[in-house]
Amino acid sequence: MNLEPIHPDRAVELYLADRAADVSEATLYSHRSRLGHFRRWCDDQDIENLNDLTGRRLHAYRIWRRNDGELAKPTEKTQMDTLRVFIRWLESIDAVEQDLHTKVLSPSLTADENTRDTTLTSDEAEDVLEELEKYQYASLKHVTLALLWHTMMRRGAARALDVQDFHPSERYLEVVHRPESETPLKNKQRGERLVALPGQMCDLLTDWIENKRPDTVDEFGREPLLATEQGRIHVGTIQHYAYLFTRPCLYSGVCPHGRDIETCEATERDRASKCPSSVSPHAIRRGSITHALNQEMPEKAVSDRANVSKDVLEQHYDRRSEREKMEQRRRFIEML
Predict the structure, then answer these.
(1) Shortest CA distance to 177 belongs to which of 169, 165, 167, 187?
(2) Sign of CA dihedral 149, 276, 105, 49
(3) Mean pLDDT score across all residues of the chain
């Protein structure tokens, strides 16, 4: 087979463009981020043509990435699995030898290792939102994080909301799959739903829309609920807000890790994720789901609200201890 030369940067961009029609924006963002490490490695190794990739070189990348990022096994698996998908795509355009993807190895995980434990607790969420309400009430930051916590939404779903999707008199949000205007939902039409809102969230959204929301539209003429002066908020901005405002030093004034706040790298611009206690939007979602379960919201109601299957809910989102579950069951038994 005659291979056609291609530079790593060009290959990744073509891959992402090809995948854009089939995956959510959040997934595309994740793939871009993970493959960014691969591009960095290629540059470090002076690889300018992916025709030169071999199984041995791919193994060298795996070791380099593991050592470079001190990766946990689940993270390493995710990154190598994405690379495998990318290499398989390269085979389809005659950029690498056929079946090279089978030589991309990733670690096997036990059931426990496949479940991430990072979660924003209800107490932490309360502290974060109180801080924002006190000092940045109804700002885009405040509205974004309050929305994630109170609705259990994925960041892509929150980003997809328009002003018209908010129904204040009936106190709910309408989540709609609109791929034609670049706001797809992860589960597409199956992700569409009506999400009831507590009164305080309705008041916050109303104050945001009436007093602080920029009067902007996106490139499709839609009015994004989470809007910036430039248009619809970016998923990366949502992630930045999550890491930024879940740092304990911000809402408590102290560092639980014994760091000097004045010199800590996590206080630098765009480095909030370096704080061991800061969490991603997904951890906020996981914490919100766990909080609802702890408050004895039925699992079916949580599953529908969060748009996640019962099996996935139990494996990846339910952070209640076995004792907590038992005590909840006990209360129901005593009611019989």
Answers:
(1) 187
(2) positive
(3) 88
CATH superfamily of 8-103: Tyrosine recombinase, N-terminal domain (1.10.150.130)
Task: Give all strands of the β-sheet with 166-167 in edge-to-edge order.
Answer: 166-167, 172-175, 193-196
Which segments within the chain are labelled E, that is strand? 166-167, 172-175, 193-196, 227-228, 231-232
- Do residues 119 and 286 touch, judged by C-beta distance below 8 A? yes
Which amino acid, 7? H
At 160 the pLDDT is 96
Q: Report the top-level CATH class of 122-283.
A: mainly alpha
* Interval 59-81: pLDDT, tens: 999 999 888 766 667 778 878 88
Which bin fits 46, alpha (ψ -120 to 50), beta or left (φ > 0)?
Answer: left
All CATH 1.10.443.10 domain ranges in the chain, comma separated? 122-283
- pLDDT of residue 301 exceeding 80: yes
What does the pLDDT look like over 143-196, one tens digit per residue?
999 999 999 999 999 999 999 999 999 999 999 999 999 999 988 999 999 999
Tokens of 94: 């005659």
214 three-state secondary structure = coil
- Using the CB atoms, write b or e for 303-320: b if 16+ within 10 Å: bebbbbeeeebeeebbbe
Residue intervals in the chain for CATH 1.10.150.130: 8-103
- For the stretch 273-285, pLDDT in tens is 888 889 999 999 9
